[in-house]
Design a protein that fits this description.
The complex is a heterodimer of chains A (445) and B (507). Chain A has 445 residues and is an alpha+beta fold. In chain A, a hairpin with a 6-residue loop joins strand 3 and strand 4. Chain A is 16% helix and 37% strand. The N and C termini of chain A lie far apart (95 Å). Chain A has a domain of 296 residues: 7 Propeller (Methylamine Dehydrogenase, Chain H). Chain B folds into two domains: 361 residues, Methylamine Dehydrogenase, Chain H (7 Propeller), CATH 2.130.10.10; 65 residues, no CATH class. Chain B contains eight helices and 30 strands. In chain B, the strands form seven sheets. In chain B, strands 19-20-21-22-26 form a five-stranded mixed sheet, with no helix packed on it. In chain B, strands 2-30-29-28 form a four-stranded antiparallel sheet. Chain B has a four-stranded antiparallel sheet with strand order 3-4-5-6, with no helix packed on it. In chain B, a hairpin with a 5-residue loop joins strand 19 and strand 20. Chain B is elongated and about 115 Å long. The chains are: A alpha+beta (445), B alpha+beta (507). At the A-B interface, strand 1 and helix 1 of A face strand 1 and helix 3 of B. Strand 1 of chain A pairs antiparallel with strand 1 of chain B, so a sheet runs across the interface.
Chain lengths: 445, 507
């Protein structure tokens, strides 16, 4: 007879000292792990609930401005530095990590409309309603805290925005015309107009450096190449746009924040139909900013909320609001993809997490693995009704909630009316128009 | 290195996965692999008993063979924890003891002064349930009574579903109840309508409760359905015992007619039927599919290839009752004069626990257990802290009782319309009745509204309505016929392949 019993040496399974980690032998035989699917489902449900429990996006506010904040500017290399401009003409430099104001400049008479920094971060520029462009030196190491501009340019008309070229010492302003300036000259190098009396915003493309886009008051979005003397093309929308933002990774893509509560993502080569219409806001969208990955963007609205959209999705994945936040006028997505900074009418600058439920700070590998596993499970079971409802649920301020409800009724009524009209008229006279194309009025070259 | 010669290419490693041998050795050293046990006879007639095994194995394993003589309180029922470390025994006369059977350390020992029908561990070794004469009680590991569950009265058998935290029980009236032990609430309760029942088992893969009844029927229950999910006529006499294996594919049943039947739970077909010397009072499956049967005073353990069948037998469909042959038997053990009450293989140890009228015996069965446990599921070597953490996690991941169903993978499948629903929808379309119309002809002047004319007008309208309806149905049928024809045509048009003769012929 040959016989052997199953025999384990306990030393192989028990940790030697109390400081060791526990030994966890694994056996992936499926018969030892019964009920795999329902267990995973329960885990997915738990992690979905926990995500909503931990969704506390508001990090803090920076107060100090004496009027509404209408302009924000990120430092191109330092994450903790932020510049903000208010309606009383003040510009403040903030340290976000310490939540302290580093310096204050009395810059303009009336609104500060735009601030931008040059790529080497040695200076920043500002413009305002007082028809003045100012150049300021930025040197965090210098001890002299002089509050004087190094250059002051008095223009003929007011300025609504300013943006610096990503490579060259060139910047662009918008106002009655779109002007391109050389940093060393007091007169614009180029000046564009296309039958428009004013522009709201202008932005350089971060990938194709010489491409410039501007949103004009005649409801159009105009594209320029600063190497040419005339504008390239323009698209006219149903209502005017407030701001433009280029996708930082996809050269052709830009998004505009529109007065009609929507955002439109366009491909520069094909302006007759937007790639995507982003709906959800119930007030005019005032500002937007792309995340550095180009996958998402954040928008600020007159309805006192901030929404985060996936770049290829028509509806927002997240909405942020507080009781005290008023009309949000400026928004920025930090360059480490983790934070969102908003400036609003009630003089505060607020910091938010880009992922509402994300844990900040260092994580142990086990914790991170656990979270990643939860993410995967949520992905796997995302279409289950219970999980879907929990994941989608957001609390909204009552006015926004009611407005959404009302919009739904309005939309249904319009659709009904159109269907009725179609049913009672000669076939073909009431054509079907895609939702995307409704907003585009005209495209010109 | 601009020029890549043949020599250069040959030097490159073929696969991209490049494991250093030293790394592999380190990995192997880090994880302990236990070898499962085995038993080989030198010749077929060799008699192997417990004594000869004990003499031939190492000292540590030999200790696992022991007997407890408790002749005053028997017959005994026993239960191992899920990690196989702790043993709970309950004598019918009221003696309950829980202990770590490997170190022989006693946790608690009490006498409940009442008849005991069954004992079961709950999710950890700190709590157990005892089905007593009148009520069911929950005790902790010191023997302190935690709860008296008056909703579970005169319970004969208990089962605990560890992932759902459900304690299910069947009582003398054949009433099946489920209690959520994490909330203390009753989840469901049904009358089985088969009378007294004391044969209960669970399928570990889908948490379905199996009940064996006196008329030879085995019923399968989930807490969500009032009726049994499946009714199987397994025997022509009362079912005495049943067991389901760890993969949930096989069930064995025994009955008063001395038969031991093996069932495939995927097809609900009988695989084998064997005539034993007596009706097995108790059955158990080991993790490696050994089958233990308690026949009067004898424990018989069958080989694991006992349930493996050659395909001819399945094809034949007619089942022959075979006699038990010595070839099928792996081990035998006799306990003099005793009556075997309960059997359970210890998880992760080559040990079979036997509860009988004179106490309990722990027998050595080499090769019965899974050698490598998963510490995330059940860890025989877990510390107190680990156990506490595991308990919290397990409670968080508790599966809701609504998710219990015959197919545990159902949740993962695509939600297609069932055939049944489709049929109902189809039937609705074909056998629609024409809409009833309530037509009252208008009053017309000059003799046109006489009763006869009125009726004629009514009839005409109804006939027109019917005609239109028949037209619709005919049109629908025509379209369907055409579709069928097109399908057939397509099938005809396909080129005959040589391999087509191996295809199943459609009837």
């Amino acid at each position: 007879m040959k016989v052997k019993m199953l025999c384990r040496d306990p030393n192989d399974y028990v940790r030697e000292t109390k400081k060791d980690i526990f030994k966890m032998p694994r056996n992936y035989d499926s018969s030892l792990h019964p009920l795999e699917v329902p267990r995973e489902y329960s885990r997915a449900l738990n992690s979905t609930k926990l995500e909503r429990v931990f969704a506390k996006p508001f990090l803090g506010s920076l107060d100090g401005h004496k009027d509404g904040v209408h302009a924000l500017c990120k430092h191109p290399t330092q994450l903790s530095i932020l510049l903000s401009g208010a309606c009383d003409g003040e510009i403040k430099i903030w340290n976000l990590a310490e939540r302290k104001c580093l310096q204050t400049y009395i810059a303009h008479d009336g609104f500060v409309r735009g601030i931008c920094m040059n790529p080497s971060a040695s200076m920043f520029l500002s413009c305002g309603n007082d028809k003045i462009i100012k150049h300021w030196s930025y040197d965090p190491l210098s001890k002299s805290k002089s509050c004087d501009a190094i250059q002051t340019i008095v223009g003929k008309t007011f300025y609504t925005s300013i943006d610096h070229h990503f490579k060259k010492p060139v910047y662009a302003t918008s106002g009655e015309r779109v002007d391109v300036w050389d940093i060393n000259h007091l007169e614009p190098v180029k000046s564009y107009s296309w039958g428009v009396d004013s522009h709201y915003s202008t932005k350089f493309s971060p990938v194709e450096h010489n491409i410039l886009a501007s949103a004009a008051a005649d409801r159009s979005v105009i594209l320029y190449d600063i190497r040419q003397s005339v504008p390239m093309r323009k698209v006219v929308l149903a209502m005017s746009s407030n701001q433009i933002c280029w996708n930082p990774l996809e050269a052709m893509i830009f998004t505009v924040a529109n007065e009609d509560h929507n955002l439109y993502t366009f491909d520069m080569r094909k302006l007759d139909c937007p790639l995507q219409v982003h709906k959800d806001h119930v007030g005019a969208v005032m500002a937007l900013d792309y995340s550095p990955t180009g996958k998402q963007f954040v928008s600020a609205s007159y309805d006192k909320t901030i929404r985060i959209f996936e770049a290829n999705n028509g509806h927002s994945r997240e909405v942020y609001h507080t009781k005290r936040m008023q009309h949000v006028m400026a928004i920025k997505w930090s360059l480490d993809d983790k934070y969102i900074i908003s400036g609003s009418d009630e003089m505060n600058i607020r910091m938010w997490k880009a992922q509402a439920a994300e844990k900040l700070g260092l994580m142990k590998p086990r914790e991170r693995e656990q979270l990643e596993y939860g993410e995967k499970l949520k992905e796997k079971f995302k279409y289950f009704p219970q999980i879907k409802t929990i994941k989608r649920h957001r609390h909204l301020p009552r006015p926004v909630y009611n407005a959404i409800k009302e919009n739904r009724i309005i939309k249904a009524s319009r659709q009904r009316k159109e269907a009725n009209r179609r049913a009672h008229s000669k076939p073909g006279t009431v054509p079907f128009v895609a939702e995307k194309k409704k907003a585009v009025v005209d495209e010109q070259e | 290195m601009s020029q890549k010669s043949r020599f250069f290419n040959s030097k490159q490693p073929k696969s991209r996965i490049n494991v250093d041998k030293r790394d592999l050795n380190n990995i192997m050293n880090d994880v302990a692999f236990a070898q499962s046990g085995f038993l080989e006879k030198e010749d077929e007639n060799e008699v192997i008993n417990q004594r000869s095994i004990v003499e031939n194995v190492d000292l540590f394993s030999a200790q696992k063979y022991f007997e407890l003589n408790l002749d005053k309180f028997g017959p005994y029922r026993l239960n191992y924890t899920r990690n196989g470390r702790h043993l709970l025994i309950g004598g019918s006369q009221g003696h309950v003891a829980s202990f770590d059977w490997q170190t022989k350390k006693l946790h608690s020992e009490i006498n409940v002064m009442e008849k005991i029908n069954d004992v079961k561990w709950l999710h950890t070794e700190t709590m157990y349930a005892v089905a007593q004469r009148q009520w069911t009680y929950i005790y902790d590991n010191q023997g302190i009574e935690l709860h008296c569950l008056k909703i579970l009265d005169r319970v004969t058998r208990l089962e605990f579903l560890p992932y759902h935290f459900l304690l299910s029980s069947i009582n003398e009236c054949g009433y099946l109840s489920y209690i959520d032990v994490s909330l203390g609430k009753k989840v469901a309760g049904f009358s089985t309508a088969h009378g007294r029942c004391d044969v209960m088992g669970q399928n570990p893969t889908n948490a379905i409760i199996h009940l064996g009844h006196h008329n030879g029927v085995v019923t399968l229950w989930s807490p969500n359905v009032k009726e049994p999910l499946v009714k199987m006529l397994c025997h022509k006499a009362a079912v005495k015992s049943l067991a389901v294996n760890q993969t949930g594919n096989y069930m064995i049943t025994s009955s008063l007619d001395h038969l031991l039947n093996v069932w495939d739970l995927r097809t609900y077909k009988q695989l084998k039927s064997i005539k034993l010397n007596a009706g097995a009072s108790s059955l158990a499956f080991s993790q490696k599919n050994l089958i233990a049967a308690g026949l009067r005073n004898e424990v018989v353990i069958f080989k694991d290839d006992f349930i493996k069948l050659n395909e001819e037998e399945i094809e034949a469909e007619e089942q022959y009752i075979e006699d038990m042959t010595p070839n099928d038997i792996y081990l035998k053990h006799r306990i003099n004069n005793a009556n075997i009450q309960n059997l359970q293989f210890c998880p992760f140890e080559d040990v079979l626990g036997v509860g009988h009228s004179y106490g309990i015996s722990s027998l050595l069965v080499p090769g019965s257990a899974e050698a490598n446990f998963d510490a995330m599921e059940a860890n025989p070597y877990e510390s107190k802290n680990q156990r506490k953490q595991w308990e919290v996690k397990a409670l968080l991941e508790k599966i809701q009782p609504e998710l219990i169903s015959l197919d545990p993978f159902k949740l993962k499948q695509v939600d297609r319309k069932t055939l049944e629903e489709k049929m109902i929808e189809r039937n609705k379309k074909l056998f629609l009745k024409p809409k009833k119309i309530d037509f009252e002809p208008r009053l017309k002047m000059k003799g046109k509204s006489k009763t006869g004319k009125k009726e004629a007008r009514k009839k005409a309208v109804k006939a027109a309505n019917l005609k239109e309806f028949v037209k619709e149905v005919k049109e629908y049928e025509r379209i369907e016929n055409e579709e069928n024809k097109n399908k057939e045509k397509k099938e005809e048009n396909t080129v005959y392949n040589v391999f087509d003769r191996f295809k199943k012929k459609s009837k």
